[in-house]
Amino acid sequence: MEIPETQLQYEIDRSFDRSLLLAVLGFLTTVIFSVFFPFSEGGTAYWCFVLGSVITVLSSILVYERRTSEPRRVLAAAAMAESTIRSSRDLFTEMYHRSPVPYVLIDETGTIESCNIAAVRLFKVTEESLNHRDVFSLIRSAHPEHLDVIRERFQRGVALSAEEFEVPHEDGTSAWVLLSLFHFIDVRQRTLGLMTLVDITKQKEIDAAKTEFVSLASHQLRTPIAGMRWNTELLMFDTGYPLPEEQRHKAERLMQSINRLSSLVDDFLRVSRFELGELTPQVGRIDVRLFIEGIVSEQQSSAAEKQLVLEVPDGAQLNYEVRVDAALLGMIVTNFLVNAIKYTPIAGTIKMGVRFEGETLSVTVSDNGIGIPVAEQRHLFTKMFRASNAEKMVTTGTGLGLYIAKRAAEVLGGRVAFTSGEGVGSAFTVIVPVEMVPDRP
User: Fold this and answer.
1) Whether residue 398 is found in the same domain as residue 288
2) Do residues 79 and 121 share a domain?
3) Last residue of a domain, one of 155, 178, 199
């Protein structure tokens, strides 16, 4: 937008015309005054005429200056504002195009209207080939429905933040990005979307390498741990004569350490298998009553050591069969029960509940233990997290159990939930889809 010089000249011309008209009127008034009041040189009327003429001229000049200075001032301010806007627009355009973060501008349908240099590099194509393409056709997800949900949310005007997607390239390689998208209205009152694509390919590669290393290390550690366990058992039970008390005590402590190490390796191995996507549900037929009784039986001795009361549903309530992955579901429920036993004080109570509703099975383990502080509950299902009061009560623990339970539930297509209050207790529930086996007597 250019400053209109013709408008400035028009305003000046109008001010000159007005000032000239005022001068003429003032002069005529003075002349008329002198006609009705004749004067001689040096008389009072003469000086009044001179003074009136001077005042008329000065007034005209002042009016002219005032009339012309105002449009100049307004137009100068407008010119300064226009210069500032132009500089800001140029700065924004430069930042948009040269930003290291890929930006893509799309319309309401998802069609690309423009993109910056970083976006062109990310997609590994030319800018011309990107324009007017559907941006959602250029990305993909491990779950196809995820992309459909994202498109629908965008079209409904919902902002998106840090959604993970893969960007495939024509050369067979791919990149991983965190996608964020928000709406805005442009100067032409159109609804557009600004998409940011943060490249996390390096982080994904590092995470994959770490997970593979943990998986490899865990596999390699299982053999020596098994050897240590067998030899310790031989030392304790197959010597042909009882060990002295001190040696037996040391052997028992050694076995406890071996078991803790074995449990830690198993947890790391499970985590790596989940993160590598190696676990898929192996659906089979299970008797719910026998399934629950088996888990409780495995932990009965640990509960008895703390004089805990285990309340299990009556067998009649569990008299049915379902189809589900027994190993993954058992991993989840066992984790809940082990935690309940570990963090419930002596002589406490633990209850188990099982419900079959529609096509879902839910198993709940509740206790009257130490509970979880409210401020820490949002971290509960993250890796290596242990609540502060849990660390004080039980010093050992990996902080991986609930993370594994959550990931196992996701593999089963279900979810985990909990309620907890510090000093009151906790209740953990897993809800998974199952198929009821008919004709159960």
Assistant:
1) yes
2) no
3) 199
Average pLDDT score, the chain: 79
Higher pLDDT: 258 or 72? It is 258
Select from 160, 181, 199 the last residue of a domain: 199
Range in 221-235, 266-280, 299-313, 394-408 the model is least confident about: 266-280
State both tokens at 251: 């052997």
pTM flag (> 0.85): no
Number of domains in the chain: 4
Residue 384 zone, left/alpha/beta (φ > 0; ψ -120 to 50; rest): left
Looking at the structure, tell me whether residues 364 and 261 fall in a common domain.
Answer: no
pLDDT digits (tens, 9 = 90+) for 136-192: 889 988 777 888 888 888 888 888 888 889 999 888 889 999 999 988 887 788 888
One-letter amino acid identity for 78? A
Measure Cα distances from 177 to 115, 193, 291, 299 in Å.
16, 17, 42, 44
The pLDDT tens digits of the residues spanning 334-357 come to 989 999 999 999 999 999 999 888
